[in-house]
Amino acid sequence: SAVETGKKLAAYQAVNDYITPEHKVVGIGSGSTVVYAVERILQRPELKNIVYVPTSFQSKLLIIEGGLTLGSVDQFPEIDVTIDGADEVDEQLNAIKGGGACQFQEKVVAEAAKKFVIIADYRKKSTKLGIEWTKGVPIEVVPMAYKGVMKSLETKLSLKPQKSTLRMAVNKAGPVVTDNGNFVIDAHFGAIEDPTSLLKEIKLLTGVYEVGLFCNMAEIAYFGEADGTVSTLK
Ligand code: DER
Asked: What SS3 state is found at 62?
């Protein structure tokens, strides 16, 4: 499909451009697009001596099953480059992440990197966050506090959400439980004019563990377009 081709082209281009044999530590994101990045890494034997740091159980399995060297971010706190997907990217390179409920470890590993590179298919390219991605801003919350967060989202933000929902699992009864043992609330705000301010306000609410807004973090974003080309945003 054009979407899968787009993911693959963006991932391959980003690996070719940003991972070199001189690198010591590389962060591997989570989701479906990053699978193509690992696929490309495995095609380049000269990248075998790099330590790869995961951002989820899924990402950890990708590294292990690829036979790549696994490292943890507390063991390797200085990461050369982290490559990860996103749910939506605006024109200032702000991103919504957490569609896969992995945004906490992703943000830790993205921040630990000298360069954070986003890879995505054309559906993720947007003018403002909340326009293309209509599933809300993923907010990881501590389970015992989730009702309090739901209330605070309604009463304490300058930008009120249209609705907030507890993310329910599909292949498991009950809510989605993250790799960190938490719940996810998806908060719908529509088009987000100022993601940095929204991030700060949400992060301060008691019970919030991490917010799926990555503002002023990415160095570049690669988009695999429907026509088979790759565009970049810097
Ligand atoms: O959970 C995340 O932030 C992931 O990076 C994710 O949302 C991107 O997933 P995709 O590459 O499968 O679209």
From this structure: helix
Q: Tell me the per-residue pLDDT of 186-216, one tens digit each, with 9 for 90 and over.
A: 999 999 999 999 999 999 999 999 999 999 9
pLDDT of residue 160: 94
Q: Which helix (H) or strand (E) holds 25?
A: strand 25-28
Establish whether this prediction's ipTM goes over 0.85. yes
User: CA-CA distance, 176 to 182, in Å (whole number)?
Assistant: 8
**Under 8 Å between Cβ of 21 and 89:** no
Ligand 1 atom with least separation from CA of 121: 13
Residues in the chain: 234
Q: Is the dihedral of CA 186, 189, 190, 191 positive or negative?
A: negative
Integer Cα distance of 53 and 63 in angstroms: 8
Just list the catalytic residues.
106
Whole-number Å distance, alpha carbon 96 to ligand 1 midpoint, is 9
Which tokens belong to 196?
Answer: 């940095």
DSSP state of 24: S
Q: Which atom of ligand 1 is nearest to the CA of 84?
A: 5
- Cβ of 138 below 6 Å from ligand 1: no
